[in-house]
Amino acid sequence: MRNIAKPLDRSVSTICEEIKRNSVTGKYNPKKAHHKAYARRKYSKYQGMKIVKNRELREFINKKLYGDQSPRAIAGRLKKREKHLPDVSKDSICRYIKSVYGRKIEAYRNKTKPRRRTRRTKSEKLKDRTFIAKRPKIINTRTRVGDCEADFLVSRKTGKGILLVVVCRKLRIAFIEQIIKTNIKNVHRAFRRAQKRFPEMKTITTDNDILLQKHKELEKLLNVKIYFCDPYSSWQKGSIENVNKNIRKYIPKGSDISKYSRYRIKKIEEKLNNRIMECLNFLTPYEALERHRKRKKRLSAS
Prior knowledge:
Elements: H1 2-8, H2 12-22, H3 30-53, H4 55-66, H5 71-80, H6 90-98, H7 103-109, H8 137-140, E1 147-154, E2 162-168, E3 174-179, H9 184-197, E4 203-206, H10 215-222, E5 225-228, H11 238-247, H12 262-273, H13 285-301
Parallel strand pairs: 1-4, 4-5
Antiparallel strand pairs: 1-2, 2-3
Helix pairs in contact: 3-6, 5-6
């Protein structure tokens, strides 16, 4: 193999891989090897063209890709939910993105926004907190609707405003409330607005932010129990951290949140809640919430 690789200016591993891949019954025949490579390429191209040839399928996939859905989520949705469309694998969708037909989508998905690092001030210690260790086990299992996680996204040092983000641990549905004038009173009002939109709220798990120093008042206002993560343990509220990561695609770190309109915030929220999620059996959070409310209504009627 080394003697073959040297005059061809190829590595020994390339020659070895070619022989293993294209041998027939343990023997390497160049004509048969060429035909095997041709057939492989032909059928690989067909799988990529499957999306292009079906107009309805292509429009569906394009819409979801522009909605920042992952190829895996789209493939799962086609297989589980969109029975009127042919299903394709995530690999086929990836090939479609990299083909000449998906150049614009590839450029859109590769866009990166500059991020600025902000330095957060240390918060004072909060009093009378109930830590996550005392949280009921049912919350950890994610089997109950209404167990939420909450967090704040802040502006840059010279900016104004914050975002309150509340997420249901089971349904993964997110609610974003913009607060322009940052104070405890307005934070409580924002929590109340979120609860009106999501009356199923039962508990809140959050971090040790100074804006929650009157958490006992907030518990009475919302009639829910608030649990605090251990210091420097953001992984204990993984659902909200995942949502924050997705929000930062549209509102990069170092942005001035007061410059974003309510309409823009609403559109970001809609985009988050229209994501196809494998953990919801390829439903979106909106669809999962709608199913839960319909089921609850039927049970109460019976």
